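Re: that backbone. Tokens:
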């Protein structure tokens, strides 16, 4: 018995060492992601707007939790969420029963969305609609569009045509709803694709496409998040037709007053149980669905199951730490900075500072790293993680700059959303299909919890300070963050396509010249 136990421990040691090494790498990545925005806030508080010690202390602890939480989460996503999605996607594709596929896809979309923490936060901010009514309506929308996304992969429907039709419907519905409901409707498309659901949905698409194989399978492996982001927009617009008194409930975002380290610890200890329960509820539907699949269909080896279980523990702990840090530390800081910056005589500084924050903050979105790794893997390194990150950062920087312009000027979101999506939808016909799918996926991924709990409070605080209409002018920031990165990535796709064609043309010319006989040699031979 002792020998068997020792042998088992010897087998586990290499795996533990490998996990420890990967965790160090993930922590290093998260430090490089979170540190820039943290340093920027510290510099702003020292140079432009003085921040009280209480808020700053809670913020710094929150940054530390973000770093460790993101490291654990991304490692857990690699070990658990991605393999789970791949296995389930591959199994669903093998099923010849379309109704079974559609039913399972709808159930997955419904349950995952109901459990999404960001959706609950959004529902609590909306007055005039019962929370559960809003959550269920949005969840049904996501479930239906996940079915459409999976059927698109199986039947090889062209994504650009579907997107054009859906956004035409969105703009048509937008004509009939109250102006105050438009920004929140577009914001809902970003908040429902959170850090827990995105890795699973992305992996689901890759698993489906890998089994289908054939021409275009790689291109179709992305696009699920893009379609799932449209469902909440339409759902919120439909709700606003039946509940005309759609208003915002301002949330209390002030940091807890702390005097010493013991009080800081007490502040986080008080919030921790809420997020322990919230993340457990969020993960439960995915875990239950996966193990139902495992027992009745997948029958994976025990070694794979153990790896997934360990990954789920990492995912759970990481997401709890991340959400606790971002909600307790970063959310009050965003609101506080927004109010102080908007109160300055030169409050136009909000625009360039917002752009800089947007450029840095996207690197701290946990799901962005999962997307970038998936893109690099599926494209065999043709689109690297660094190129994706820089492109997303530029897109988010532009989006936050536009959002802060709206806060200060009060211009309608339609003047930005309509031309923005028209450009994005037009570019779908000039870039490769895989760039279209990745681009529209990136919109939902970039607008994650960091955007919702740091950048949006920044806009809300600034809007309140300048006396603007919060519903019309501050909300819509998440929509901007979801829109501009997809344009940036599509432009990257157009440039990539032009360079590839030039390279192929040059290569063909070289081959052609090599095949032309040397006339001088022929004359000498004669």
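Recovered sequence:
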């Amino acid at each position: 018995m002792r020998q068997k136990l020792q042998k088992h421990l010897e087998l586990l040691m290499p795996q533990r060492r490998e996990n420890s090494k990967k965790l160090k790498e993930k922590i290093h990545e998260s430090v490089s992601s979170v540190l820039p925005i943290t340093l920027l806030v510290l510099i702003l508080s020292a140079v432009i707007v003085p921040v009280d010690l209480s808020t700053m202390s809670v913020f710094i602890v929150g940054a530390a939790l973000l770093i460790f939480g993101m490291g654990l989460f991304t490692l857990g996503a690699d070990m658990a969420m991605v393999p789970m999605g791949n296995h389930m996607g591959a199994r669903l594709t093998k099923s010849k029963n379309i109704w079974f596929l559609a039913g399972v896809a709808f159930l997955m979309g419904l349950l995952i969305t109901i459990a999404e923490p960001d959706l609950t936060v959004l529902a609590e901010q909306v007055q005039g609609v019962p929370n559960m009514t809003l959550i269920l309506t949005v969840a049904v929308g996501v479930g239906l569009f996940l079915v459409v996304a999976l059927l698109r992969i199986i039947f090889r429907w062209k994504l650009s045509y579907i997107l054009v039709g859906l956004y035409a419907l969105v703009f048509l519905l937008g004509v009939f709803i109250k102006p105050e409901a438009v920004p929140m409707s577009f914001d809902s498309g970003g908040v429902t694709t959170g850090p827990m659901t995105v890795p699973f949905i992305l992996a689901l698409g890759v698993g489906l496409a890998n089994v289908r194989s054939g021409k275009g399978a790689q291109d179709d492996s992305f696009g699920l998040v893009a379609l799932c982001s449209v469902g909440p927009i339409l759902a919120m617009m439909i709700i606003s037709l039946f509940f005309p008194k759609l208003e915002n409930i301002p949330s209390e975002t002030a940091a807890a007053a702390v005097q010493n380290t013991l009080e800081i610890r007490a502040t986080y200890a008080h919030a921790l149980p809420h997020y322990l329960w919230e993340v457990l509820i969020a993960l439960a539907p995915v875990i239950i669905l996966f193990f139902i699949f495992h027992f009745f269909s997948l029958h994976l080896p025990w070694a794979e199951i153990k790896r997934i279980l360990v990954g789920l523990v990492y995912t759970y702990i990481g997401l709890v730490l991340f959400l606790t840090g971002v909600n307790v530390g970063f959310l009050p800081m965003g609101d506080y900075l927004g109010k102080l910056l908007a109160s300055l005589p030169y409050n136009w500084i909000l625009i360039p500072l917002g752009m800089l924050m947007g450029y840095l903050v996207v690197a701290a979105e946990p799901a962005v790293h999962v997307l970038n790794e998936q893109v690099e893997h599926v494209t065999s390194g043709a689109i690297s993680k660094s190129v994706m990150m820089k492109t997303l950062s530029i897109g988010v920087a532009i989006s936050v700059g536009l959002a802060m312009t709206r806060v200060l000027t009060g211009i309608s979101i339609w003047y930005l959303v309509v031309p923005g999506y028209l450009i994005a939808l037009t570019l779908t016909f000039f870039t490769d299909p895989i760039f279209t799918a990745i681009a529209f996926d990136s919109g939902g991924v970039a607008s994650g919890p960091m955007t919702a709990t740091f950048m949006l409070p920044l806009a809300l605080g600034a809007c309140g300070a300048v006396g603007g209409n919060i519903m019309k002018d501050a909300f819509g920031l998440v929509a901007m963050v979801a829109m501009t990165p997809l344009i940036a990535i599509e432009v990257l796709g157009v440039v990539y396509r032009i360079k590839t064609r030039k390279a192929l043309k040059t290569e063909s010319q070289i081959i052609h010249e090599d095949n032309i006989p040397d006339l001088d040699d022929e004359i000498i031979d004669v």
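Confidence is low (pLDDT under 50) at residues 519-526. The longest helix spans residues 2-47.
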